[in-house]
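Lecture notes, unit on binding sites. The following record was shown on slide 14. It pairs a sequence with MTE.
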Amino acid sequence: MNNFNVNPMNNIDSINHVTGKSIYLDDITTLKGTLHLEIFGSAVAHAKILSIDLTYAARVEGVVGIFTAKDIPGENQIGGIVEDEVLLAETEVHYQGQPIAIVAATTEIAARKAISLIRVDYEELPAVTDPRVAQKNGMLIIPPRTFSMGNTDEAWCKCTHIFDGRVEIGGQEHLYIETQGAYAYPTEGGFLRVHSSTQGPTAVQRTIARVLGLPMHQIEVDVQRIGGGFGGKEDQPSQFAALAALAAHLLKQPVKLSLSRHDDMRMTGKRHPYSADFKIGLDKNLKIIAYETTLYQNGGASADLSPAIMERTLFHSTASYFIPNTRVTVYSCRTNLPPNTAFRGFGAPQGMFVMESAIAKAAHELGVAAQTIQELNLISEKDEFQYGQVAENAYATKCFERAKEQFKIEVLQKEIKLYNSKNRFSKRGMAVMPLCFGISFTNITMNQARALVHIYQDGSVSVSTGAVEMGQGVNTKLAQVAAITLGIGIERVKIYSTNTSRVANTSPTAASTGADINGNALLIAATRLLERLKQVAAEMLSCRASEVEIKNEEVLCRGERSSTSWQKLIQTAYLKRICLTENGHYSTPKIYFDKTKEKGHPFAYMVYGTGIVTTTVDCIRGTYSIDEVLVVHDFGNSLNPTIDTGQLEGAIVQGIGWATIEELMFNNKGTLLSNSLSTYKVPDIHFAPKSIRCITLEADGPEQAIMKSKAIGEPPFMYGIAAYFAIQNAIMEFNPSYQPSYDLPLTPEKVLMGLYS
Ligand code: MTE
Ligand code: HPA
Ligand code: MOS
């Protein structure tokens, strides 16, 4: 217990992860009689269901139950924002892989065999996969929304240069290491306990309650940790947990569902592909005067989180720039693909890529470097964003300048030029990506959290919050907050699983807010406990509570060590019948948004930075390597630099993957062609940048960030956008007649075409 050698900067999970001791969903010891669940998904993207024949499947030995929509005791409805998604298809299917039936069997083999024997007759209907076609046909998930500022129509005549263009943006497979799944079992009195691989235990609880027609207090959802989510487990786990819960509830037996990688890839939604048009106008000094863009979001077959993601696209459509006259419209389009969902950045990367494409196009046409235009237009202190928030502590320029001087951008450019002049078939390129990303759920209500803290008689401490550990290190940060606040060693603190019985009505761990909102709730609870304990100590030491401090598990009075330790203090408090439990509630202050005006102050604060990516393109093969990523990032006062650096590096590599080699392919019948790891390529150790160098911007963090340590989960993802333009710049060095297109990802195939076009 008194081991102070534990480095509080380490991730508390590391040792257990690398020694295989951490418990994920599939590691939970199952109860006797646990059944295996498999899903029968639609073979076609859009059809009427004429008949479902289960007779052959039911005869398979080991099959215990087969269920369809008509077996659902409550509502066959799982839509969160829009009520447009059934749990199991009834009369129609809207995407390939959409669940129609489930089989519970004693073995996985029996369940799979039964699935292969289910016969469904379809009457196929035309499938739409293109969001622009969907928009033309009026197939929208919600009405379009427009954010605007200034007078864009009038501003065009003040512009010296006007350019327009079209942008295509691909989706992205989450590829969390742990696939979707859940383990559900009935307990006494018709209760259900559910382990779910989810970022949102409350959403899972609410969905199960709805589908089974039970009150929420009869469902307990528990999450020890998840093997990655990246947004893919913010909303979608509800469906899979509800399927497992349905079978468990109907059969009164434990049921486990763990998707195969193939099922996970074909059944679940991904990052939204977007298509967009832009028009940009600059004055003679390269100031952007006007910007207009229309984006078509490919929402998939039902809303899922698309409306919220569309909103963040609107917020971040001008990226890190101040543009006095701007108008952006987004259409959320319904197509026959799996419902697309949250993914690190939540619609911001797509909006920003359109903005950066517009700048790249202007730079190309005018024969200037894109970073010249970028730098001239960065958002500054007191500038207004198009949604009304005024920039405070705007470090965009600071980061840019720091990057320029620290990484010697001009020297780097000269080196690249020299290299390119000496090499005919190998060309280097670089590009800069300024970052400005808003922290808070765009849905104001969701910015709340609670923490339950117990101090046990022996002085050990447990913490329960709504935060889900998904590899991002939130549990370590929470343990640090408790340990720092109470003045005790981090090994005294255990972070418990995320459980709806201990902490209710949680927001998903998302929007990079996990540590901020849960940490602040914990801070409130721990501070109250501390105040109470100081009273006890004051009585013990005959001094005033304001003179008491607890440091390194020792109780100090007027800065002097006393005979009392943390452990003694807790024992005394218990004997005196002092409450050693607290519950903290936090709601992010000052944020609001008025949807009727599309104006407000939605973000607690912004995260800034500047990223530079350099690349070398093989001009014979079209392949490329990412050489170096150089970043100046605004961490605030990082609570844990090791974890924050890991998040930064991981997000950058994921962002580069999205911009370059990760290519989702659907055919026009809505079949996912890139449905395995042999056809969908993610960055591996060979592809990852050879070096990522990051410099911390020296700036105090904001009050709303946990202990002034800024949110880190999503923002660095967007530095990856620079990889796209770096490669494009290298292509131009080889082929001066190349006409740049804005069609992300920039795969080696596209590069090869560009080199010789
Ligand atoms: N890091 C790991 N290792 N695994 C993940 O699934 N998800 C990302 C980010 N970092 C993720 C991750 C996403 S999409 C978000 S929103 C944040 O972590 C969520 O956690 P936080 O709010 O605690 O930062
Ligand atoms: N980010 C992530 N998830 C969300 C958000 C957001 O801004 N809003 C609602 N869910
Ligand atoms: Mo992250 S996309 O907000 O889960």
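Take-home: The chain has three domains: 17-126+174-267, 274-442+595-755, 448-587.
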